Amino acid sequence: MTPDWIGAFFIGLVGAGHCMGMCGGIASMLTMGQANPSKLTPLFYNLGRLSSYALIGGMVGGAVSSISEVSQLNNVLVWLRITAAVFMILLACYIGRWWHGLLYIEKLGQVIWRGISPAGRSLLPLRRPVYAIPFGFIWGWLPCGLVYSTLTWSAVSGNALNGASVMLAFGLGTLPAMLLVGHSAGSLYKLQNNTMFRHVAATALLLYGLYTGYGAISILSITY
Question: Which residues form a coiled coil (predicted)?
Answer without folding.
Answer: none
